[in-house]
Specification:
The structure holds two protein chains of two kinds.
Chain A (H helix, E strand, L loop, with lengths): L1 E5 L3 H13 L3 E5 L2 H10 L4 E5 L7 H10 L5 E6 L4 H9 L4 E4 L4 H15 L6 E4 L2 E4 L4 E4 L2 E3 L3 H12 L7 H8 L9 H14 L8 E4 L3 E4 L4
Helix pairs in contact in A: 2-3, 6-8
Chain B lengths: L1 H36 L1 E4 L2 E4 L17 E6 L4 E4 L19 E6 L5 E9 L2 E2 L22 E8 L1 H48 L20 H47 L5 H32 L4 E8 H18 L3 E5 L5 E4 L1 H18 L5 E9 L2 E8 L33 H11 L3 E7 L2 E9 L11 E4 L13 E2 L1
Parallel strand pairs in B: 1-7, 10-12, 14-17
Antiparallel strand pairs in B: 1-2, 3-4, 3-8, 5-6, 6-8, 9-11, 9-16, 12-13, 13-15, 14-15
Helix pairs in contact in B: 1-2, 3-4, 4-7, 5-6, 6-7
The chains are: A alpha/beta, B alpha+beta.
């Protein structure tokens, strides 16, 4: 999942970006309101974590612009402004969630996960495909009874495919949603990681859970 | 008023007394004269021709009047019928007018006697035809007669007593009634004050904005109501500012706290290498330092507000003070290509607290260094103004609009464009500068023009006669009462 973090207080920006990346998200971070809007307008983010008191353009204005443009990203407002009026205003302007500083990192991560599920209309935090079970909360994967160990990037890729299970996911979509802005500009990267996943997930004698749809992309589905 | 009534009552009583008394006496005297008129002397014989029919009062059996006549030598000439065989007490008096005495009447009543000593009218014989040549016989010499007429004074006394009681009653009643009415009127009049007092008693810090309805008040105390409303408004504003300040302070501290918490939680979220932990600790420490400086600034501000600061005045050379405050910033500024020009006359002195001035200068210079653009300029100029030392610190690279200058001194305000947050500054600086300068007896102002931010200070000048004042600590004199709004000047 790809997350945009717009937060001007650098120590906080640094810590939250690190926490999100370590949780497997592709994170683009900026401390500038205008730059944040530019990022959001140009890319498809699954979740945007938005501070309100920003230089050059404040968070609520950014939110209004995004909604007016019909950008579907799910927005979590992260701010020190905590009054009822503030919360209601933020939500009414189009935010999907509101978290007050200071906050527990695990709460932020849980809320971002919830917004990511929402982005794909997946209600169940536990996704099952055949005998593959993905626990999105704890980011653990089981194939049958076996606990499968994946790297953060591998997990992110698998989770994205799982959120869109049954659909054919274009390579570019994978690129957009699993990799951040400054990632290695290697189009092969997606194929390489699909290969890693298959190696870890596939079982002898059974067709791959990840199907290649020639010319169009990949799809995660139960064995036919 | 009671005294007036009493005096009035006494006057009336006295006047009535005299009138009634006089009337009584007059009546008694008239009776005496009537009787006296009926006493005639014929030659040597005195005859009394009292017409009893005309004077029934001397004959009645119930509470009669009495009279008695004596000759000069004490012989009783006549008694009234009422006397019977008794005698009245014979009282001496000067002849002529009747004289009055209080007496006890024969039947025991209290009474008054009129004593009249007179010469009875001489009745001549019918004139014989005069033989010529014969002299007239000499007229007979009148012999004085004592007449005493006595009458009971019970009626008089009771009339006077009745009047007295009436007067007392009237006066007393008037006074009582007046007291009651006055009490009622006053209580009525005071009731609005009571309800006003009740309203005031109900006011708490959080209901200070409750306005006292002046329209409902009687005209006399409406001014009090208005003044109270003014006072409440000022108090409310002062409390609001305090609450806003406390809220701002807590609020501003939340951001570094969030940063600290996130940094530590991330560090602890999984096993890490030592250098990663080190980095997290270092980041945490930086954040803590920012919080500390924020808290320190807040404390200083609070102390100034609460008049807990002491002031130690001495002559301070501005050039020297500026130079020492700039020194810690010089390297970083030079690295960014910022050029500093300092034009402060060497002999420019101000009379102030050295340490507190350093706080002000350090704040302003750090602001200038922070917000100046790379390769920009910082200019410091000093000059002597009338009775004051003026200092200006300006930096290029300001992206605030000119009209945002008026917010500059608000606590925690940071212009949007100025929020290039390095994590070191919080918006407390200029608020502190302003309050501290005011505390030192000077003024601070800010202006923004053409991308240049200028902070100017005006401080009391040191006396130029060379006499050096002893540096003495003095208790703080607050720059104005705590309730006055903080003045903001902007050019």
């Amino acid at each position: 999942m790809r997350v945009l973090l717009v937060e001007d207080y650098l120590p906080l920006q640094k810590a939250v970006a690190k926490g999100l990346r370590e949780a497997g998200y592709a994170v683009d971070a900026t401390g500038d309101g205008e730059e944040g809007l530019w990022y959001a307008s140009g890319n498809d983010y699954d979740v945007i974590v938005l501070d309100l008191m920003l230089p050059k353009m404040d968070g609520l204005s950014i939110l209004k612009c995004l909604r007016a443009d019909g950008r579907p990203a799910h927005v979590l407002i992260l701010t020190a402004r905590d009054t009822l009026a503030d919360r209601v205003k933020g939500l009414d302007l189009g935010a999907d969630d509101y978290l007050v500083k200071p906050f527990a990192l695990e709460e932020l991560l849980a809320r971002v996960r919830a917004l990511a599920r929402r982005a794909y209309c997946v209600k169940n935090p536990s996704i099952e495909v055949g005998d593959l079970r993905i626990e999105t909360a704890s980011q653990r994967v089981w194939r049958g009874k076996e606990d499968v160990r994946l790297t953060a990037r591998e997990y992110a890729l698998l989770e994205y495919l799982a959120m869109r299970r049954g659909e054919t996911v274009a390579r570019t979509d994978i690129w957009e949603h699993v990799y951040e802005f400054n990632s290695e500009a290697d189009s092969n990267v997606v194929d390489v990681y699909i290969g890693y996943l298959r190696r870890k997930l596939d079982r002898q004698g059974r067709p791959s859970l990840i199907q290649t749809v020639r010319g169009r992309g990949y799809s995660l589905g139960a064995e036919p | 008023m009671a005294a007036l009534l009493a005096v009035f009552g006494l006057l009336v009583n006295w006047a009535a007394h005299r009138a009634l008394d006089g009337g009584f006496n007059e009546s008694l005297a008239t009776a005496a004269r009537m009787i006296a008129a009926s006493v005639k002397q014929e030659r040597d014989k005195i005859e009394v021709e009292v017409d009893d029919q005309e004077m029934p009062e001397f004959r009645r059996t119930k509470r009669p009047d009495y009279f008695e006549l004596w000759t000069a030598d004490g012989a009783v000439l006549k008694r009234s019928v009422s006397l019977g065989q008794c005698d009245l007490e014979r009282i001496d008096a000067t002849p002529g007018k009747p004289v009055f005495h209080a007496v006890t009447l024969p039947d025991g009543r209290a009474g008054r006697a009129a004593v009249l000593i007179f010469a009875p009218g001489v009745e001549d014989e019918e004139e014989k035809p005069r033989e010529s040549g014969q002299p007239q016989p000499p007229p007979a010499t009148p012999r004085p007669v004592t007449l005493i007429v006595a009458r009971g004074t019970a009626d008089l006394d009771s009339s006077l007593a009745l009047l007295r009681w009436l007067l007392v009653g009237a006066a007393g009643g008037t006074i009582a009634l007046t007291l009651v009415v006055a009490a009622i009127v006053v209580r009525q009049g005071l009731r609005p004050l009571d309800s006003l007092a009740a309203r005031i008693a109900a006011i708490r810090e959080n209901t200070l904005s409750a306005v006292i309805p002046v329209d409902e008040m009687p005209r006399e105390i409406a001014p009090i109501g208005r003044r109270l409303n003014d006072l409440l408004k000022r108090l409310d504003e002062a409390f609001r500012r305090e609450r806003a300040f406390a809220a701002d302070a807590a609020h501003e501290l939340r951001t570094p706290l969030a940063g600290l918490r996130a940094t530590l939680e991330v560090a602890l979220s999984r096993p890490r290498k030592t250098d990663e932990y080190e980095e997290s600790f270092r980041d945490s420490l930086t954040i803590v330092q920012r919080m500390q400086s924020m808290v320190d600034s807040l404390l200083v501000l609070a102390r100034i507000e609460n008049d807990q600061m002491t002031l130690r005045r001495e002559p301070v050379r501005l050039a020297e003070a500026v130079e020492s405050c700039w020194r810690p910033l010089a390297d970083a500024a030079r690295d960014r290509g910022i050029r500093l020009t300092c034009r402060v006359p060497d002999d420019l002195e101000c009379l102030t607290d050295r340490e507190k001035l350093a706080m002000v200068l350090a704040n302003l210079l750090a602001n200038a260094a922070e917000y100046a653009d790379d390769g920009g300029r910082i200019d410091i100029t000093g000059r002597e103004e009338a009775g004051a030392a003026g200092l200006e610190i300006s930096n290029t690279g300001c992206r605030l609009a000119a009209d945002e200058a008026r917010h500059a001194f608000e606590r925690f305000w940071r212009g949007d464009a100025a929020r290039a947050d390095t994590g070191v500054h919080c918006g407390l600086g200029l608020a502190l500068v302003q309050r501290m300068t005011a505390f030192l007896g000077g003024t601070a102002a800010v202006r923004i023009a053409g991308g240049v931010f200028t902070a100017s200070l005006s401080l009391p000048a040191a006396p130029r006669d060379g006499a050096s004042l002893p540096a003495s600590p003095e208790p703080a004199s607050p720059a104005g009462p705590a309730i006055e709004p903080v003045e903001r000047r902007f050019i």
